[in-house]
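Expect chain and fold; see below:
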Amino acid sequence: MAKLQAFGLSRIAALAAIAGLAIYRLAPHLPNLTPVGAMFVLGGLYLGTGWAWIAAPFAGLFVSDVILNLAYDGHPIHAGRVFDYLAFAVVAAIARVLAERPLGWKLGAVAAAPVIFFLISNFGVWLSGGALLNAPPYPKTLEGLSECYAAALPFFRGTLIGDWLFGALGLGVLEVMRRREVRAAAVAA
């Protein structure tokens, strides 16, 4: 138990939360109501300064993506997801920067995660021409970009709810755990 406490119970809980959220993606759920952005926020906020803050959420995303993709079309990886992965890396990096800030900043990371994902991932859809089969590509104009973002709005609600709900819940639990660890360390010192 001493080794676990030295690693940090809040870090272990963050890893468990990320694993649980990745598994949640595999279960039936409402369209786009998945907490992928929340995985990256929690990783950035609670997994320290080593590589775990980015590696753990990407491992959860990659494994769940491969399983979902194989079930969907038999292809384990889709090149079109590169902008999605870039968006999640940005979310994690912002959370990492805010990890030692007050709670309000951390809540800001939770609030911003789905917005960042929406903007970057749909920019990628526009840049690549569009994601729908048999649909004409979006024109490479501001009007085409606006059309792409407008077409993505129906999917945004689930992303907002999933990231905000799971991110806020995870943040609340992990923040309480971290503060208890800090207090216990101060008493022990």
